[in-house]
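Input sequence (160 aa), recorded before submission:
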Amino acid sequence: MAVITTNTVSIRCVGHNGRATLKEAVSEGWRMCRVCLSFICPKCIKEFDLKMGGVCPSFIFGIEKHQLSLAPIPVEKVLVFVEENKTEGITAGLLETLFYEDEQMGFIPFYATMDDKPKKDGSIEDDAEPPKIQEEIWASFGFVMTKRRRGKFITWEKIG
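Predicted structure, token format:
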């Protein structure tokens, strides 16, 4: 089980979608928008101030346009938020897409797909065995979630 600290929690910049640990973000001067609670790095703050007149880049994600209202990152609140959501089992958007989308499609009515591609010999690959999703600890990346089918690696994402 991963320990939640400023070194293991990462946040994303709403401007360029880059990621940094909470500790790195605080030391580098990242800020949080008070209006939409998005995180933004110093470089993107300058860019959006110069090129967009200080408009918060969160409008890219469908949030109503507003001016950046910057505040320091509330580290304690972020850690509490992560702890609460981790215990509830909420998965992030990327993890949700990579690992659980296939399983959820079975619950959507009238869902159909034409993904079966013939092999070179004309047969269709048998995907009767569902993929196995598991947590692993890798020496190079630490705590990760992997998706494998019949022992073959499909995808992975760092989660801790």
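Checked by second reader. The chain has a mean pLDDT of 76.
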